[in-house]
């Protein structure tokens, strides 16, 4: 072997084994610090500060605008390109969910018991009095849909001025006795799917026909719940809905007609079920003593194929849409990790990068090209 | 640390590693809060369950311990239509005292 070949081989090997380039801009909620950490193309570049109470804060993007909703009820608009806070408006003393429409924001409040409509610059437009804490807020066509946690109702509001500069919502349909204590919802095309804390069923509202049906869940003995599970659009694959069981160590799988397919046994009580962009893998996080564990489910075979354990509580995961990367937020380890998930052999997935972020929780990707 | 392309940026540690302000973190009941309550309750803001500030303003220590141990019956006795709270009857007396004291410590909180 000549010297030239000796020099080239290690370079080739290095190229073959190098981590995927990181194209992402990631905003990380610092749960205890009133800040968003910014990780831009693999580099921790700093923080956006003065973001209020970030306990359970949620970040969303639309066009070139970023918005945060905080535990103490502030909606904050920020610039995700230049990483600057722009404006804030307090809709209540506690809020958890919101959506961004073309020309409005809708905030589901816990306290006070309203849904607030703001324009995209956070000027108030309308207050919808519901008499309940409100969760699972979604939009579909001219509808705004949410669930009332305290009254067990689903409300469908309709924008009666769809061509106007700002919307005006009126109550279009109310579903009473939907189920006991709705806690979150997801939407897939025209189907609004809502989960209940105290009922052994999910609810499915067809937003085209406004027909509502309860789909029973085959629940076992309910275990003590230490964290309310989350639904998300990411747990809807081409073939299946993945629903974390409340108080059971299972992820339920339904087809799109809501026929029961399988209950995947998991190591703990699931919190998040997060589907990879290629729909091949489902990452499942847990609560209680299993907070440090993440299980990977093969979303085609519907079986657990890998167990991962971290040095801290995993509060959130996020699949990159641009690169074969999976991010983990390890809250009690003060770390965010990136794993290379390019292999079809999940045993080969490995950590490729980590960043020191104090008390991280939610992970949110901004794509400046897509504006989302 | 392992893997290729791992970037720890020591210089940025000073930027990001600010102190983590968390109400009551030094209280002996805080670890119990993190282990059992944290997923549904916040110290000062309403979450899935009421805030500790709200509970502390309304309830005695005995009522709080009773609700932790036997929420189904306690909630009815206190006049609630229903309760979503699970029972924590496996906590011992010391743990219950610490947790109740932690909850009550938010009565005077100004945050």
Word description of this protein:
The complex is a heterodimer of chains A (372) and B (111). Chain A has 372 residues and is mainly β. Chain A is 4% helix and 51% strand. Chain A is built from one helix and 31 strands. The radius of gyration of chain A is 21 Å and the shape is globular. Mean pLDDT of chain A is 91; it is low at 6-17. With 111 residues, chain B is mainly α. Chain B is built from six helices and no strands. The termini of chain B are far apart.
Which percent range describes the beta-strand content of chain B? Answer: under 5%
Largest sheet of chain B: none
Distance between the termini of chain A: 52 Å
Biggest sheet of chain A: strands side by side, in what order?
3-2-1-31
In sequence order, what are the helices and strands of chain B, one letter per element? HHHHHH
N-end to C-end Cα span of chain B: 39 Å
User: Low-confidence parts of chain B lasting 5 or more residues at pLDDT below 50?
Assistant: 1-20
Write the layout of secondary structure elements.
The complex is a heterodimer of chains A (372) and B (111).
Chain A: H1 3-17, E1 25-30, E2 35-40, E3 43-48, E4 58-62, E5 65-69, E6 74-79, E7 84-90, E8 94-100, E9 105-111, E10 114-118, E11 124-129, E12 134-140, E13 143-148, E14 153-159, E15 169-175, E16 182-188, E17 191-196, E18 201-206, E19 212-216, E20 240-244, E21 250-255, E22 260-265, E23 270-275, E24 281-286, E25 293-298, E26 303-309, E27 314-319, E28 325-330, E29 335-340, E30 350-356, E31 360-366
Antiparallel strand pairs in A: 1-2, 1-31, 2-3, 4-5, 5-6, 6-7, 8-9, 9-10, 10-11, 12-13, 13-14, 14-15, 16-17, 17-18, 18-19, 20-21, 21-22, 23-24, 24-25, 25-26, 27-28, 28-29, 29-30
Chain B: H1 10-16, H2 30-37, H3 52-58, H4 61-69, H5 71-77, H6 93-104
Helix pairs in contact in B: 4-5, 4-6
């Amino acid at each position: 072997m000549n010297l030239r070949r000796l020099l080239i081989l290690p370079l080739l090997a290095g190229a073959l084994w190098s981590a995927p380039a990181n194209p992402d801009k990631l905003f990380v909620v610092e749960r205890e610090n009133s800040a968003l950490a910014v990780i831009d193309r693999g580099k921790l570049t700093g923080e956006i500060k003065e973001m209020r109470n970030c306990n359970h804060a949620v970040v969303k993007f639309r066009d070139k605008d970023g918005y945060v909703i905080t535990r103490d009820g502030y909606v904050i608009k920020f610039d995700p390109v230049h990483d600057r806070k722009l404006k804030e408006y307090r809709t209540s003393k506690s809020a958890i969910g919101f959506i961004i429409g073309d020309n409005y924001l809708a905030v589901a409040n816990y306290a006070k018991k309203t849904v607030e409509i703001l324009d995209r610059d956070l000027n108030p437009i309308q207050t919808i009095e519901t008499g309940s804490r409100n969760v699972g807020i979604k939009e579909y066509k001219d509808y705004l849909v949410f669930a009332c946690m305290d009254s067990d109702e689903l409300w469908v509001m309709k924008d009666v001025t769809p061509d106007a500069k700002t919307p005006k919502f009126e109550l279009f349909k109310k579903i009473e006795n939907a189920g006991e204590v709705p806690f979150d919802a997801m939407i897939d095309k025209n189907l609004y799917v809502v989960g209940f804390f105290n009922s052994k069923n999910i609810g499915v509202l067809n937003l085209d026909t406004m027909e509502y049906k309860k789909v029973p869940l085959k629940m076992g003995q309910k275990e003590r719940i230490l964290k309310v599970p989350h639904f998300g659009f990411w747990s809807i694959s081409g073939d299946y809905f993945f629903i974390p069981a409340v108080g059971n160590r299972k992820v339920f799988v339904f087809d799109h007609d809501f026929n029961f397919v399988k209950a995947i046994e998991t190591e703990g009580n699931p919190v998040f079920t997060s589907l990879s962009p290629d729909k091949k893998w489902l990452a499942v996080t847990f609560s209680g003593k299993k907070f440090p564990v993440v299980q990977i489910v093969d979303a085609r075979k519907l079986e657990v194929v890998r167990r991962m354990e971290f040095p801290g509580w995993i509060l959130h995961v996020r699949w990159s849409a641009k690169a074969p990367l999976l991010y983990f937020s390890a809250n009690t380890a003060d770390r965010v990790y990136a794993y290379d998930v390019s292999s079809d052999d999940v045993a080969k997935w490995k950590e490729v990068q980590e960043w020191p972020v104090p008390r991280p929780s939610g992970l949110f990707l901004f794509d400046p090209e897509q504006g989302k | 640390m392992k893997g290729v392309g791992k970037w720890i940026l020591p210089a940025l540690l000073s930027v990001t590693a600010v102190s983590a302000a968390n109400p009551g973190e030094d209280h002996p009941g805080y670890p119990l809060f993190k282990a059992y309550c944290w997923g549904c309750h916040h110290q000062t803001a309403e979450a899935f369950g009421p805030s500790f500030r709200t509970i502390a303003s309304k309830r005695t220590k005995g009522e709080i311990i009773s609700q932790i141990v036997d929420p189904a019956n306690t909630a009815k006795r206190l006049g609630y239509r229903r309760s979503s709270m699970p029972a924590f009857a496996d906590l011992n007396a010391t743990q219950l005292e610490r947790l109740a004291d932690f909850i009550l410590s938010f009565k005077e909180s100004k945050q």
